Amino acid sequence: MVPATNLLAFALAALLLIAVPGPSVLFVIGRTLALGRRGGLLSVLGNAVGELLQIAAVALGVGVVLAQSVLLFSVVKFAGAAYLIYLGIQAIRHRGRGPTAAEPSRPASTLRILREGFIVGVTNPKSVVFFVAVLPQFVDYSAGAIPLQLATLGALFLAIALVSDSGWALVAGTARRWFASSPRRIAALGTTGGAMMIGLGGTLALAGNAVEPQPGK
What is the pTM assigned to this prediction? Predict the structure, then answer.
């Protein structure tokens, strides 16, 4: 198991990194503005499940192969970017469907929102590189069970991020409810959320292959 001192040090480092809003936060806010609080929270959950799969891959050594392969990394990067842009376009296309209530009149199915969040999470190359570059620094190699230690650290990071992202979804959902008194405003929020996702997808597509761990999840 990971020593308690390593866990504490990693938790503090994770808090500092997550405190600065990054791509994951922008995705959550964009989804919440487009779909409402329920859609935002479900997107957070789906995104977390996708990143959980990444953590498992890193613990088993697959993540290192992906991070070091320019071709594989590029495939994942462009797939994730294209999907974000697709979600953004869909949000803009359906922006007029929101009523004057705080939530959409025809909410998207739970399974669909979870699936979309999962795809974004599992195809986020920045997360893979972060897990590959940062998690091993807090592993006690003399204690053995390296895959288990990596999985434990990854799960801790994911738990902290899940709480943080959910908080952002609640805040964005509150703002959306305030704007929901006007159909024109709610349509503008849908457009804003879609534009944020398109911009995030474009930024991801233009990012270089050598992604260094940076503040902001």
Answer: 0.71
